[in-house]
């Protein structure tokens, strides 16, 4: 078995890299159990597992044990080798999808199933008992399977196959979340912040994640090219807290009982649930009200420069409770119907220009 003290492990690795055949044999004897346990977990312990184990050994030996060169003794050799073995097996799995994709799916699920389910749980934290997580996992699998495993076979051999697959899985899950919650949007103040801040906001406010930097660091692992540390996450949380309420939406007093009168027993009166929105709902509603008010002010200011006929047309249209037929507008304005259609086209272009200019501010 491997020793707990990393220094003898590092010395052994250096001897192997130096070409010491006796050291290489000691290395293989000492690491066989670790490598076999990884193989059994990912490939099984049957003939396929035995073949995979030999493949891992060959992968380690390749180019004079080149895969051992990055090992610096800072961690346990067993941990390092588990990662290396997984990468070797992942490359083997990637090749199998080129040679015989139909026979490789069960190995793919055994290899990546746990990681994908973990990411599903991160993206759907509140659906543990609804079956939605299982549905999401199946949808991710279907995306990988469709078009004869097109997404898997797109791997070009550059970089880590494991990272390639998990990145695709993450993107599929993001699409699922967006599809299932199409109406939910970030407050404008949050949408202007960096992606890290936005992900922290959705994790805490939408997904009810604890506002703990260390735990958020684990949740966000793998979403960025470089994983943010707790200090960066803490700084992002501080930025968010200055702009918006940073608490789970369900923590708001949406269902707090509010007394309507004082005629009940004990003077408490009749109580009903408060249907007021969450802090996030209130923030979004406030933003929408401000946007509508600003847009209306912009329309009024710009309308002052329109010809009288165009202003009258807009006044009639916007004052009507229900859409008015062109003939009724023509009658009210004492104009031919054809002229009303031209006014309508000009007004639509004008309103579109106003909205575009307003959106760029």
The major beta sheet can be summarized as:
2 strands, antiparallel
What is the mean predicted local confidence, pLDDT? 81
Tally of individual helices? 15
The CATH superfamily of the domain at 1-99 is known as RNA polymerase sigma factor, region 2, helix turn helix motif
Query: Per CATH, which architecture of the domain at 1-99?
Result: Orthogonal Bundle
Number of strands: 2
* Rg over C-alpha atoms, rounded to the nearest angstrom: 31 Å
Fraction of residues in β-strands:
under 5%
Query: For this structure, what is the CATH class of the domain at 1-99?
Result: Mainly Alpha
Principal-axes geometry comes out as elongated
Order of helices and strands: HHHHHHHHHHHEEHHHH
Secondary-structure-derived class: mainly alpha
Low-confidence stretches: 251-265, 267-275
CATH topology term of the domain at 1-99: Rna Polymerase Sigma Factor, Chain: A
Helical residue percent band: 55-70%
Compute the separation of the termini in Å.
66 Å
What is the spatial order of strands in the main beta sheet?
Answer: 1-2
Please explain how this structure is put together.
With 361 residues, the protein is mainly α. Among the domains are: 1-99, Rna Polymerase Sigma Factor, Chain: A, CATH 1.10.1740; 188-250, no CATH class; 306-359. It is 67% helix and 2% strand. It has helices spanning 6-17, 21-43, 47-65, 77-99, 105-123, 132-153, 161-180, 188-191, 195-206, 213-219, 230-243, 279-303, 308-319, 326-333, 337-359; strands at 257-259, 271-273. A two-stranded antiparallel sheet has the order 1-2. α6 crosses α7 (161-180). Residues 251-265 and 267-275 have low confidence and may be disordered.
């Amino acid at each position: 078995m491997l020793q707990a003290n990393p220094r003898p492990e590092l010395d052994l690795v250096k001897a192997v890299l130096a070409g010491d055949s006796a050291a290489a044999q000691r290395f293989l004897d000492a690491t066989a159990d670790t490598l076999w346990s990884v193989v059994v977990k990912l490939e099984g312990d049957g003939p396929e597992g035995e073949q995979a184990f030999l493949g891992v050994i060959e992968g380690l030996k390749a180019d004079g044990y080149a895969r051992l060169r990055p090992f610096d003794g800072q961690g346990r050799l067993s941990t390092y080798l588990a990662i290396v073995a997984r990468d070797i097996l992942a490359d083997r799995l990637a090749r199998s999808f080129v040679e015989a994709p139909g026979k490789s799916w069960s190995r793919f699920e055994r290899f990546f199933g746990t990681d994908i389910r973990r990411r599903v749980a991160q993206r759907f934290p509140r659906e543990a008992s609804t079956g939605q997580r299982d549905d999401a996992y199946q949808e991710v699998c279907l995306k990988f399977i469709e078009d004869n495993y097109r997404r898997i076979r797109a791997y070009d051999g550059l970089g880590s196959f494991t990272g390639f697959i998990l990145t695709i899985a993450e993107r599929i899950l993001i699409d699922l979340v967006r599809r299932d919650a199409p109406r939910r949007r970030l407050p404008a103040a949050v949408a202007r912040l960096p992606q890290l801040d936005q992900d922290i906001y959705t994790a805490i406010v939408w997904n009810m994640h604890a506002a703990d930097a260390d735990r958020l660091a684990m949740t966000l692992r793998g979403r960025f090219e470089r994983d943010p540390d707790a200090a960066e996450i803490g700084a992002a949380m501080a930025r968010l807290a200055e702009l918006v309420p940073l608490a789970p939406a369900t923590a708001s007093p949406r269902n707090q009982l509010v007394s309507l009168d004082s005629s009940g027993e004990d003077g408490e009166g009749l109580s009903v649930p408060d249907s007021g929105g969450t802090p996030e709902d209130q923030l979004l509603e406030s933003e929408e009200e401000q946007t509508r008010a600003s847009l209306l002010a912009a329309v009024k200011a710009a309308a002052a420069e329109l010809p009288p006929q165009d202003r009258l047309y807009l006044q009639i249209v916007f004052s009507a409770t229900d859409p008015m037929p062109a003939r009724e507008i023509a009658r009210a304005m004492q104009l031919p119907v054809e002229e009303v259609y031209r006014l309508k086209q000009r007004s639509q272009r004008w309103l579109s220009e106003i909205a575009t200019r307003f959106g760029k501010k």
